[in-house]
């Protein structure tokens, strides 16, 4: 069944990745993700259905608009393929489980929020705030199905703890922490808490460690002390590290101490 979950998740990822391309472009600009239909920015011709097949259409069109020849960025198929791979990896990790929808949702917002933050240094409320409802709902349904109320209570505690930590950090050092990071943190803490407190610790430590490493690297390359980096992507990467290996890493650390 895991193989079926992987295949279906990859196919779903291609479709979701195509939609995420629209989200990443339009949401930061305050545009609707529904209307108008996808169109060429140069000639404004609406993209035909046969030209809207993830990855395949870009290859068949050789990366150009069918009507005017305007180049189509390779980022579009890259996002579609990358989302498909991400969904497939999540399905391989989780398997055919009631938790799969919750983690696929996290994978989807991870992709679009990381790209938007890298593009415009912002984590839009239009994506983050609905996650405050969707993520607890999906994890809550999984907890009910698995009869694991303790995991859901721990998830809510994790969301509160991580959210409070980021709020205090933003108040103490506003130049280094954006409000979007603070709003996203309870969502990530929710997922980490569902897995365990070891995941919370490793996930948050990993986020700040990665952010510091990349920040130093950017400073060395640019030699500009004012050159900042968006923290959202590293929060997200740290969270996935915590989810996948956090419990085992934290357990190993405690064993060494013991």
UniProtKB/TrEMBL annotation:
<feature type="transmembrane region" description="Helical">
    <location>
        <begin position="234"/>
        <end position="256"/>
    </location>
</feature>
<comment type="similarity">
    <text>Belongs to the peptidase A24 family.</text>
</comment>
<dbReference type="InterPro" id="IPR014032">
    <property type="entry name" value="Peptidase_A24A_bac"/>
</dbReference>
<feature type="transmembrane region" description="Helical">
    <location>
        <begin position="6"/>
        <end position="25"/>
    </location>
</feature>
<keyword id="KW-0812">Transmembrane</keyword>
<keyword id="KW-0378">Hydrolase</keyword>
<dbReference type="InterPro" id="IPR010627">
    <property type="entry name" value="Prepilin_pept_A24_N"/>
</dbReference>
<dbReference type="InterPro" id="IPR000045">
    <property type="entry name" value="Prepilin_IV_endopep_pep"/>
</dbReference>
<keyword id="KW-0472">Membrane</keyword>
<feature type="transmembrane region" description="Helical">
    <location>
        <begin position="194"/>
        <end position="222"/>
    </location>
</feature>
<feature type="domain" description="Prepilin peptidase A24 N-terminal">
    <location>
        <begin position="11"/>
        <end position="93"/>
    </location>
</feature>
<keyword id="KW-0511">Multifunctional enzyme</keyword>
<keyword id="KW-0997">Cell inner membrane</keyword>
<protein>
    <recommendedName>
        <fullName>Prepilin leader peptidase/N-methyltransferase</fullName>
        <ecNumber>2.1.1.-</ecNumber>
        <ecNumber>3.4.23.43</ecNumber>
    </recommendedName>
</protein>
<feature type="transmembrane region" description="Helical">
    <location>
        <begin position="127"/>
        <end position="145"/>
    </location>
</feature>
<keyword id="KW-1133">Transmembrane helix</keyword>
<keyword id="KW-0645">Protease</keyword>
<keyword id="KW-0808">Transferase</keyword>
<keyword id="KW-1003">Cell membrane</keyword>
<keyword id="KW-0489">Methyltransferase</keyword>
<dbReference type="Pfam" id="PF06750">
    <property type="entry name" value="A24_N_bact"/>
</dbReference>
<feature type="transmembrane region" description="Helical">
    <location>
        <begin position="151"/>
        <end position="173"/>
    </location>
</feature>
<dbReference type="Pfam" id="PF01478">
    <property type="entry name" value="Peptidase_A24"/>
</dbReference>
<feature type="domain" description="Prepilin type IV endopeptidase peptidase">
    <location>
        <begin position="105"/>
        <end position="216"/>
    </location>
</feature>
<comment type="function">
    <text>Plays an essential role in type IV pili and type II pseudopili formation by proteolytically removing the leader sequence from substrate proteins and subsequently monomethylating the alpha-amino group of the newly exposed N-terminal phenylalanine.</text>
</comment>
<dbReference type="InterPro" id="IPR050882">
    <property type="entry name" value="Prepilin_peptidase/N-MTase"/>
</dbReference>
